[in-house]
Design a protein that fits this description.
By secondary structure, this protein is an alpha/beta fold. The chain contains five helices and seven strands, in the order ββαβαββααβαβ. Strands 4-3-6-1-7 form a five-stranded mixed sheet. The chain has a two-stranded antiparallel sheet with strand order 2-5. Helix 4 packs across helix 5. The relative contact order is 0.24.
Amino acid sequence: MEVYLIRHTETICEKGVCYGQSDVLIAEPFDLVFENIISQLPVEAIIFSSPLKRCTVLAKYIQNKIKTISYNEDDRLKEMNFGDWEMKNWNTIPPEQLNPWMEDFVNIPASNGESFTELHKRVGDFLSDQIVKNKDKPVIIVSHAGVVRSILCHYNSLPLKDAFQNKVDFGQVIKIVL
């Protein structure tokens, strides 16, 4: 079974802003980038998307360009919840909060947010719930860097602490075969 993991394209946020589950828009124009993404996809697929706008704009564009078996949005595909840090510049987050998280992002949640382990669990729940049901068709997942890294950790049996070994660029398509 082919699974195509797609990270959303660049957002309108300034560099250095923490925007996990904040619903921010993508930068325009995006048609050429979207067409490049579509050129890497199968002609028919099931699409799953994070419900955040930066993903749904791309997912719906794909839905209009390929034969879509079904289109679904799933909250479990949202980026990590950064709680109190959402929409703040990383440099303004108090070091007494940020440093412990930086040392152990796997287990320590962002202030009033979630840890990478919590994200990984919900992504794992999505995989066991949705991917198993759709074994016979290609699947496209439009989501975020944290979610894609989590899926790649599942796929490659990579320890969560090593998740950042998985480089995931804006608009990148990663094909895996399950």
